[in-house]
Prior knowledge:
This protein has 341 residues and is of the alpha+beta class. 27% of the residues lie in helices and 27% in strands.
Amino acid sequence: xxxxxxxxxxxxxxxxxxxxxxxxxxxxxxxxxxxxxxxxxxxxxxxxxxxxxxxxxxxxxxxxxxxxxxxxxxxxxxxxxxxxxxxxxxxxxxxxxxxxxxxxxxxxxxxxxxxxxxxxxxxxxxxxxxxxxxxxxxxxxxxxxxxxxxxxxxxxxxxxxxxxxxxxxxxxxxxxxxxxxxxxxxxxxxxxxxxxxxxxxxxxxxxxxxxxxxxxxxxxxxxxxxxxxxxxxxxxxxxxxxxxxxxxxxxxxxxxxxxxxxxxxxxxxxxxxxxxxxxxxxxxxxxxxxxxxxxxxxxxxxxxxxxxxxxxxxxxxxxxxxxxxxxxxxxxxxxxxxxxx
Length: 341
């Protein structure tokens, strides 16, 4: 809940609750909510989570809104509800979970190929790379368990009670509340991610592992190195907006590891219709195009140094690092990039 702090005699005193709206009051459709969450759920809203999206609802199909896999290959099913959906919304989610619980590996891969038409790798191989596993999961290890999550209005007591009932029956289910506020004619979206809703303060200096786009363009890294920039392309170009000046960005090169680090400078800029970038100042040695990448810190070492498990398939490799963690990784990266003596 959001509260306005009221001052009494120059000191903060009373708390005044700020009323919240529902998407239906804004004239929005449920698909708008799905679009917001599908685009940001597994990156921004679940900043500390590691989920691999594999499928999104198609029009006029009896499907849940979003399907994702976790590190263990379990299927996570998201059903998104605007307005005040009744308890039958939970029964609908149970039907989706029942159907999806019977999906074989081949069915999962079929669904994934529909969702990600650019990928030529198998689902198992993509999953292995996304979570930096030592080996690909066996086909039989996928979808052994299912967990479904209802995303709904924080004031929807009937739906919350329904989720709680099924949880008491031993089902793996959760309710994630959202709220929408209108303050000074501006709209604000509040979302609570499990288990503790942990997020870095957006204004704080953070460390960010950022992909060099090797999967789609081998030359992107050289553009970033030679032009002193961190860049994103195509449909995901706006992710550079998640960076702030003074953040430390670590350049993550697929198949290798972290190859350089830099401090983010200045505002987001456009370079044509397909790229957005921020200027950077490098803090480590810079790989040269004519020499190729000769030194790097492997992904496994990055996880060892930070003590974190990253989701490597995103452009921004969540979770973020706080300032102290970023500076520690930077110091270790400088050691890894030192030339052999």
